[in-house]
User: Fold this.
Amino acid sequence: MSNECNSRAFLYLNLPQMVSGMLFSEEFDFWSREHIVLKRPDEADTFEGFYEAVIYNLSQFLFACAGHYNRFEQIWAEINPMPLFSATMQTCIDKKMDVTRGGARYNSSSFSLIGIGTFIDSLYAIRKVVYEERKLTMEQMKELLRTDFAGQEAWRLYLQNKVPKYGQDDEEMASFAGRVFRDLAVHSSGMPNARGGYFEASLFAFFFYDVLKEHTWATADGRHAGQRISRGCNPVESTKEIDAATLMQSLRSIDFKDYPGCAVSYLEMPISKNAAGTDVFVRILEAFVHCGGNALDFNVVDKETLLQAKKDPDNHRNLIVRVCGYSAPFISLSEELQDEVIERTMRNG
Amino acid sequence: MRLSSEPCATAETAFITNIQHFSLHDGPGVRTTVFFKGCNLHCAWCHNPETISSKGQVGFDVRRCIGCGTCGEVCPCRLHKMKTRLHETDVIGCVKKESPNEGEDVRHEWLRKECLACGRCVEACPANALELYGKHVSLSEIEKECMRGKKNFPGFGGVTFSGGECLLQARQVFYLASKMKAEGISVCVDTALHLPWDTVEGVLSVTDLFLVDMKAGLSDTHKKYVGVSNERICENLKRLTQLADCWVRIPVVHGVNDTEEEVEAMLNTLGGMGERLKKIQLLTYHTLGEPKYRALGTDMPRFEAPDEKRQEWMLEEFRRTGVCVEWN
Ligand code: SF4
Ligand code: SF4
Ligand code: SF4
Assistant:
């Protein structure tokens, strides 16, 4: 029987949009509402300064969130006690204490951080293009974001295609990603909650990333406003060259011990005409555990996804399908083959 | 065929197009496949047309091009030109694009024939509309990539050297394969065996399994569709199956090698093989190479795949060899 009362899914924090909130602070009033004095990242002379400011502001915000949550949690026992649920836990009985007061053995809370892949790529793009290559000034970059790259498709594509992305085989990127994962874990965990437990870091949102995307402005990784943001701890969908092998490799940037609140990886499996696929599942699961993964969400591709991919290839570059014994990126197929694959999915149900 | 047709300048690099991880079709298990560039055959249905030429090539995907002109600025030979006003007849191999910046039409003209494949435009193109086929990559780098599979996959199947014809770079294959063997990684060599026996023999000691591509049974058919007759290939195969484990892989193309005479001829050849022919894989013809043909500026020759009845029949026929047969 369980002996845990974990409070989660009460706050989804859209990381990429937080960065927009810092770059365009005049247009977001949550800083002043929370009485947070913002460190302006866009005024930093170095990337270190920029990054520090971003993390500082985030930590202040998370701090404020923890405060709000704790305020509610302190009155939880009065407005919604849970005697029946508590009766299922041994320690609640031993301690004669309701779960809402901390009767369970494990009393954690967690914020869910969303879009970490997009967040990492955006910060990295700013580091490369603004601070290192100096191809754009901070003001120019902000202008691109503010206008959603209007009339600047070449720049958008440059940011999307020519700057290394999280998940690709690039050592510098891998170490940067590792740093972001670490720092975010540090700042989203460790605060005490009102039930005698602590906040734990987590990276999941089983479908919420799709709801949030519409409210997410353009990002410095070349993503248009309103387009999908990354899922769980995955790399961004539009990153090319990401196959199961690279996905596993990317897991190595993350120390999953930092994320006891669960960090989900998503993997779309190729659809296959025959059952030969089971062996592949086994291999991937083995590899996943071997690389220290935490939670894996398998998806077998359905017709809807394929239809979407046909319409919007850029956001489905890593969708692999099997065609007569071969695997190939769906978007690389000719239109007639794409249609055939779609039809086949329909036939197989 | 002399080994001097190797396109690489020194023994320290190999000329390859790609390294593919998590490959499921190049031998047993989940493998890493290295595609060498350069082939001494020319199969009419080749699905990797970018691996045939032993020179570097640039592929151009017109659909991705946004007509920004960056490629033209970096090309040392000024081969890319963006033209705003052009008559249809002046256009050489180009696209009509709406320029996203000015809102006017741009035609992208590229003198492909004069391209040196220096790769500068590929590097610069923000849209990834240009792609470089063929890179000289240091052997140590390839080695590192190949080792990665072992690190990430407990059930890692091993490394496959493919192409093109990887044995046109036999020294490189030998070097890499020995390194793999030293680490206990299984090595497959995917070859069409149209080579002097010495070359094949050279890699015997470091290869666990040969994947031998068989194109046709009758010499005439072979000559017609592949460019050369198949005597030497059969000869080599016979010798090889005495000495090393082999899988024979046959891309089946309707009307070419799925006729009764053809199948009989192939069965005759395969019947005389040694014990170590472990498997026959029949592969259905497919058109996955189409985008690459398009990117190379040529039309893909159209063939057809055998229908299911034909496939059943072939399966039965090949089973007569007593060897394990599968459609892949
Ligand atoms: S750089 Fe790329 S997108 Fe721009 S014109 Fe050249 S091929 Fe087209
Ligand atoms: S590969 Fe080099 S020579 Fe060829 S078009 Fe590009 S820049 Fe010019
Ligand atoms: S042997 Fe392979 S790479 Fe060479 S032409 Fe034939 S199919 Fe293409």
Remarks:
- The longest helix of chain A spans residues 47-79.
